[in-house]
Specification:
It is built from 4 helices and no strands. It is an all-alpha fold and 97 residues long.
């Protein structure tokens, strides 16, 4: 990357960090979520990854938006998805067939 571009990007990032007061996501959530996904997936290992994730989101109210057919996973927060994974682990995975 061009040094001038890198410098501008670092300056912008620095300015954003100075004013950003929003939450920072805990990187530890990644291992926790992946571990829970693995636990659920191993209950139905023949399912493709995309099917598994889509079905898990399909069952979440947070992923359903009025006026949209299908689901919208984009704005579902990780903690909400992780709670859904905990429910599935506790209640058992019922793959929609």
């Amino acid at each position: 990357m061009d040094d001038r571009i890198r410098s501008v990007m670092e300056e912008v990032l620095s300015e954003v960090e100075e004013v950003w007061d929003g939450p920072m996501r805990d990187p530890a959530r990644i291992d926790a979520i992946l571990s829970k996904l693995k636990t659920i997936w191993m209950q139905d290992p023949d399912m493709r990854f995309g099917q598994l994730v889509y079905n898990l989101f399909w069952q979440m109210q947070d992923a359903r938006k009025e006026g949209i057919t299908g689901i919208d996973m984009f704005y579902v927060e990780d903690d909400s998805f992780e709670r859904r994974l905990d429910e599935v682990i506790r209640e058992g995975w019922q793959s929609p067939k």
